């Protein structure tokens, strides 16, 4: 399924979902014609529905990239909703029982704090680490 097919989706009396065939990602079409990307994350007993953006501002490819980013965070034990809230507030995240904290900035840069040491990663470095983590889970 491509963006053209999604653009052609018409509103109905009740909201409905369009599944583009990608794990957990779907588009909700409302009766007023608004279209929202959603992702149902299921991981280790956690079930959360997360917003990925508004269609067409957020394309299918963008929604899938966001899904991959969210999934990578879940694999590391970071709840995506908590991470989003912390990023908005500029706060840091600590994994349960870990001696480190993670902070993801709104522009995609990651900071890792271990004790008094802080490692700042640029967006390309963060993306590279994400790619490695995603490859390891396969």
TrEMBL record:
Keywords: DNA integration. GO terms for biological process: DNA integration. This is DUF4102 domain-containing protein. Residues 3-87 form the Integrase DNA-binding domain. It comes from Luteimonas marina. It comes from the Bacteria. Belongs to the 'phage' integrase family. It holds the Pfam family Arm-DNA-bind_3.
């Amino acid at each position: 399924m491509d963006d053209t097919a999604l653009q052609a989706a018409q509103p109905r009396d009740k909201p409905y979902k369009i599944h583009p065939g990608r794990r957990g990602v779907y588009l909700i079409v409302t009766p007023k014609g608004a279209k929202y990307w959603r992702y149902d994350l299921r991981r280790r007993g956690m079930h959360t529905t997360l917003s990925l953006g508004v269609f067409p501002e957020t394309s299918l490819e963008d929604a899938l990239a966001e899904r991959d980013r969210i999934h990578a965070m879940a694999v590391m034990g970071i709840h995506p909703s908590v991470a989003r809230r912390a990023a908005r507030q500029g706060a840091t995240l600590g994994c349960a029982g870990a001696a480190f904290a993670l902070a993801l900035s709104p522009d995609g840069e990651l900071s890792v704090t271990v004790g008094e040491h802080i490692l700042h990663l640029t967006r390309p470095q963060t993306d590279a680490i994400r790619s490695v983590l995603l490859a390891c889970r396969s």
